[in-house]
Amino acid sequence: MAVQDIDFEGADNTGGGSNPDTNTVVPDNKDDVTHLNGGDVDDITNGSTDDNKDKPDDKGDSNNDNHNDDTSTGELNAGDQLEVDGVVYTVAENGDLVDDKGNVFKEAKDVAEWLKSVDVTNENEDSTLNLASIQEAVGITVTDENGKTIEFTDDADGVKSYIDSVIALRSTELQEAAVNRLYQDNPLLKQFQDYVQLKGTAKGFGDIPDRSGIKLDKNNEAQLVAVIKMAAQEFGNKSLNDNYIKYLRDSGGLYDEATNQLAALVDKDKAYRQQIETQAAEQRKQEADARASYWEKVNNMINSRVINGYKIPDSFTREVDGKKVVITPNDFFTYLSEATVEQKDGSKITAYQNDLAKLTDDEFMAREMLDAWLMFTGGTYKDLIDMAVKENEVRRLIVKSKQSRSAKSVKVVKKQDGKTSIDDIVL
Predict the structure, then answer these.
(1) Whose CA is closest to 335, among 369, 362, 367, 299?
(2) C-alpha span between 186 and 179 (Å, rounded)
(3) Number of C-alpha atoms within 13 angstroms, CB side, residue 14?
(4) Which of 358, 325, 330, 333 is nearest to 343 (CA)?
């Protein structure tokens, strides 16, 4: 008996359509399947039954990269959370979206397609970079001398100004912290600064007594007597005389009295140093208040847009490094008050101070002479401006007058017949 050709689907070449490539017959009925092992098991060409083909990969196979595309969750990873209508769902290890009780909201195979149909907002994505977000991230509020929050423009210049202010503020804080630490480690240095600030000179600083380091020797009678006499002189206590000292020596109370008097002397030294420190702090405060008051007046004058009778514009254009820049009165106040120009030694000065330092000796003398002339004549800069305006008007009149005198007249002589030749025009 002839052996039939059996393919992997159990079909022979006796029925159904033929395959043009292999000249074998393809059965019309898919249900007529003959399995190699003869049993009713899954078809090896499918690899799974119809009941299992829609199920996601086994949960234990979380490290398998060969997932079917239908189970992809896009860019989501296990542990990511999505909030839908106020309910938070978490991406499980197998890719399912589940609630806090483990109930499946979306199966892994449906997540990617579902995400395409909704608007997704990622809270971890950076928001638009602007001044407000930068200020929130830095966490530093810049204030003026009066404690009022300084407002910056929401553009590149405003951001730069804010960052420069923060750097200057932090630099000042670090400097103050370093100085305070230095004073803490070297209290004598702080006392010296206070003394010089208050007295205006270092002379006499070495004469300030500090007897806190004296250690009394109970058996050193000369030392004890010296301390008692020192106290008698400084406090003007005439009762601490030789007779009283003899009494103390005889009664054995010399050490106790010397201890009491030394404590009084130490307290006196401390009180004197505290007085110097307090007075120096008050002086610094007065100077700071005077500076704040001065700059407040300057700011008010600039804001009024009138300086010594001269009205300043709300804005004007100035050429800086080959570029035309719009300048405002606020920029003028910054030019005067803020130390923004760093020197070679690391110190900073204002832009105005820097421009003054660039002046030659002749230019600086000319400015001084102009101020002296105004003081001498009782005039103001407004008078100079008026003079310059009048002088400019006079120059325009002179130029106009010259143009009038040099103008040529043209006379046209017409012939009787009404025809005119070019030769008849007299210049």
Answers:
(1) 299
(2) 10
(3) 7
(4) 358
Q: Which tens digit of pLDDT belongs to each residue from 362-411?
A: 999 998 998 898 889 888 877 777 777 777 666 666 665 555 555 555 55
| Residue recorded with tokens 């043009």 | 20
pLDDT tens-digit readout, 105-151: 888 888 888 888 877 666 555 556 777 888 888 888 888 767 788 88
Nearest-CA neighbor of 76 among 115, 46, 45? 115
Neighbour tally for 366: CB within 10 Å: 12
3-state secondary structure of 68: coil
Do the beta carbons of residue 283 and residue 300 sit within 8 Å?
no
Residues 112/96, Cβ–Cβ less than 8 Å: no
Pairing of β 425-426 and β 411-412? antiparallel
Tokens 């005119």 -> residue: 420
For 410-422, what is each residue's pLDDT tens digit? 555 555 555 555 5
Residues in the chain: 427
The torsion angles phi and psi of 119, rounded to 5 degrees, stand at -85, 120
Per-residue pLDDT tens digits for 156-195: 888 888 888 888 888 778 878 887 788 777 777 888 888 8
Place of tokens 């003899």: 246
Structure tokens at 144: 């003026």
CA–CA distance, 80 with 120 (Å, rounded to integer): 13
Q: Give the 3-state secondary structure of residue 354.
A: helix
Name every residue whose Cβ is closer than 8 Å to that of residue 375 and which is 6 or more positions away in sequence. Answer: none
Angle at 342 between CA 337 and CA 345, to 5 degrees: 125
Distance from the Cα of residue 157 to its chain's centroid: 13
DSSP assignment letter at 155:
S
DSSP string, 111-128: HHHHHHTS----TTS---
